């Protein structure tokens, strides 16, 4: 913890670099990814403060849309699309994902009931080889499922129909730093 504290103490000593951020934000991209500490959206994309609107959840899960029981994830998506007017949404899964790995392997999660119940939102169970530590196939399948789930959100459905919002599925390899994007014409994940 001490290195983080030491850095935070010096971080605010350059106020001129941050003054413009007080004027508001206008990110073009909503970046939905896992809360895994190895996945750092700004590092992956090179984004500066104010350029990405981030939604991080265990397993980059987008819960089903329901107006009866709104979630913080739904509120974040709606705010990004309706208020900030993002033009793109990226759902970025990653290799070695513990959440997707647990789903692929069918792990017993009774000791962590909140995790178990949250991962139930990922259904259907992602495909993939249980013995693959990267869980590449499972993560890629899961990212596409979450992208489809996004389409059920009324604001996303409307904006994609208007052609003012594009959806993207990415796969990030934590062990190499490579990023692959899904291509719908070939139904494959290929290097950016």
From TrEMBL:
Pfam families reported in the protein's UniProt record = Pro_CA
Residue ranges that the Swiss-Prot or TrEMBL entry lists as coiled coil: none
Broadest EC class?
Answer: lyase
Q: Which reaction does it catalyse?
A: hydrogencarbonate + H(+) = CO2 + H2O
- Give the keywords, sorted: Lyase, Metal-binding, Zinc
Q: Which domain of life is it from?
A: Bacteria
Q: Which Gene3D superfamilies match?
A: Carbonic anhydrase (3.40.1050.10)
**EC code:** 4.2.1.1
* Sequence positions that bind Zn(2+): 34, 36, 94, 97
Q: How is the cofactor bound?
A: Binds 1 zinc ion per subunit.
Against PROSITE patterns, the record matches this protein to: PROK_CO2_ANHYDRASE_1 (PS00704), PROK_CO2_ANHYDRASE_2 (PS00705)
Any idea which GO molecular function terms this record carries? carbonate dehydratase activity; zinc ion binding
Q: InterPro entries, alphabetically?
A: Carbonic_anhydrase (IPR001765), Carbonic_anhydrase_CS (IPR015892), Carbonic_anhydrase_sf (IPR036874)
Q: What is one process in the GO biological process aspect for this record?
A: carbon utilization
Q: Which cofactor does it need?
A: Zn(2+)
Q: What does this protein do?
A: Reversible hydration of carbon dioxide.
Give the family, as the similarity comment puts it.
Belongs to the beta-class carbonic anhydrase family.
Q: What is this protein called?
A: Carbonic anhydrase
Q: Which organism is it from?
A: Streptomyces bauhiniae
Give the source lineage, highest ranks first.
Answer: Bacteria, Bacillati, Actinomycetota, Actinomycetes, Kitasatosporales
């Amino acid at each position: 913890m001490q290195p983080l504290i030491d850095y935070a103490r010096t971080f605010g000593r350059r106020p001129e670099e941050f003054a413009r951020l007080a004027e508001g934000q206008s990110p073009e991209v909503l970046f939905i990814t896992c809360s895994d500490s190895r996945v750092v959206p700004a590092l992956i994309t090179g984004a500066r403060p104010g350029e990405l609107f981030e939604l991080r959840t265990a397993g980059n899960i987008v819960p089903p849309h329901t107006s009866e029981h709104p979630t913080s994830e739904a509120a974040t998506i709606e705010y990004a699309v309706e208020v900030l007017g993002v033009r793109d949404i990226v759902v970025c899964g990653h290799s070695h994902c513990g959440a997707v790995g647990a789903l692929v392997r069918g792990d017993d999660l009774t000791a962590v009931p909140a995790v178990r119940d949250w991962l139930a939102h990922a259904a259907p169970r992602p495909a993939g080889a249980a013995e693959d530590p990267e869980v590449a196939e499972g993560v890629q399948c899961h990212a596409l499922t979450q992208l489809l789930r996004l389409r059920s959100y009324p604001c996303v459905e409307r904006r994609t129909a208007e052609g003012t919002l594009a959806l993207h599925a990415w796969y990030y390899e934590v062990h190499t730093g490579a990023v692959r994007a899904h291509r719908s014409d070939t139904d494959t994940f290929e290097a950016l």
